Amino acid sequence: MIADKIREELDKLGVTSVSPGMSAVAIQLAEVLDNLGSGDAPTSQAMVADKLAAIMAKLRNLAPPATEGDVLDDLADRRAQRRGA
Fold first, then answer.
1. Percent share of the chain, pLDDT over 90
2. pLDDT at 8
3. Mean pLDDT value across residues 28-50
4. Average pLDDT estimate for 50-76
5. Whole-angstrom Cα distance, residue 64 to residue 60?
6. Exposed, middle or buried by CB within 10 Å (0-12, 13-18, 19+), for 16?
7. How far is residue 67 CA from its own chain's centroid?
8. Helix axes 20-35 and 2-13, enclosed angle (nearest 10)
9. Which DSSP string corresponds to the chain?
C-alpha cells in the first residue's frame, strides 16, 4: 500500500537515478510501515513515518524541475490535433 504509493511518487519525481540510495531507503521504510501491524507500538510507526517523510522531503527537493511545454509547444500540439496527426 504505502510502498506502492512511494514508488509511484518516486517515478513521477524522477529522482531514482539522481539519488538511488535515498530512493531505496524511502521504499524500504514504506515497506516497514506496510508490515507494521496494529499490535506494534504506535511510537514505532510514528518514528518510521517521520523518517520516511524527511527522506521524501529531501527527494522532492532533489527532483529535477518538471518540463512543461511553452506557448509554442501548445500551439504545435493544437495544430497537430487539427490536422489529425
1. 62
2. 96
3. 88
4. 85
5. 9
6. middle
7. 16
8. 160
9. -HHHHHHHHHHHHT-TTT-HHHHHHHHHHHHHHHH--TTS-HHHHHHHHHHHHHHHHHHHHHSPPP----HHHHHHHHHHHHTT-
